């Protein structure tokens, strides 16, 4: 198995179900499945637009919330409720955490590469002991770059001091997996921790 394993966070190490988040937080707007799905698209804009700037670290909550409220025609309190609820949604996924521990114990060096706004990055770092398993990591908001931009993979390669051919990247988003491969990394699209572990063995 390759020496270096780089993990995405949202949807891989941590649960990320934006539709369920919005159904809980704004039930009066997510009145059925179709409305909830549309609300995800409208609120997060595929993690581009204003939320993309939040991921990139070029906008903070006091500016973000009014922008989303104005764009969607929502009350400011509604938008703030969603922003405040995100940390509660980012629960560690037990099976992935167990895989992290096994890989670490077997001598693999672990890293993370995550699109993550600064407030949520601080929350995750301060609430999960398994961060000690990671040799290093990159949060998008701290380097002002986001996946799938090639530059963030270039930065991570240099910062981690890793050889791309000895590196495997794990992400739930197909585009990010494609860019990692284009950068010379091996890459696996995450579906389940068990699937990833089998794919890691297959890569060798």
From TrEMBL:
InterPro entries: HAD-like_sf, HAD-SF_hydro_IA, HAD_sf, PGP-like_dom2. CDD domains: HAD_sEH-N_like (cd02603). Pfam families: Hydrolase. PANTHER family: ALPHA-D-GLUCOSE 1-PHOSPHATE PHOSPHATASE (PTHR43611), FLAVIN MONONUCLEOTIDE HYDROLASE 1, CHLOROPLATIC (PTHR43611:SF3). This is HAD family phosphatase.
């Amino acid at each position: 198995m390759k020496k270096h394993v780089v993990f995405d966070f949202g949807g891989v190490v941590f649960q990320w179900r934006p539709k369920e988040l919005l159904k809980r937080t704004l039930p009066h707007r997510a009145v059925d499945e179709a409305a909830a799905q549309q609300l995800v698209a409208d609120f997060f804009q595929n993690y581009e637009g204003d939320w993309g700037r939040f991921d990139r670290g070029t906008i903070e909550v006091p500016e973000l919330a009014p922008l989303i409220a104005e764009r969607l025609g929502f009350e400011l309190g509604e938008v703030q409720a969603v922003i405040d609820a995100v940390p509660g949604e980012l629960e560690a996924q037990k099976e992935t955490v167990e895989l992290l521990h096994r890989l670490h114990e077997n001598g693999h060096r672990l890293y993370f590469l995550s699109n993550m706004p600064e407030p949520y990055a601080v929350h995750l770092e301060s609430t999960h002991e398994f961060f000690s398993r990671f040799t290093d990591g990159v949060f998008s908001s701290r380097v002002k770059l986001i996946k799938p931009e090639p530059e963030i993979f270039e930065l991570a390669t240099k910062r981690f001091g890793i050889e791309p051919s000895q590196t495997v990247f794990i992400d739930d988003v197909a585009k990010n997996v494609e860019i990692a491969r284009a950068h010379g990394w091996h890459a696996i699209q995450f579906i389940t921790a068990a699937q990833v572990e089998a794919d890691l063995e297959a890569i060798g």
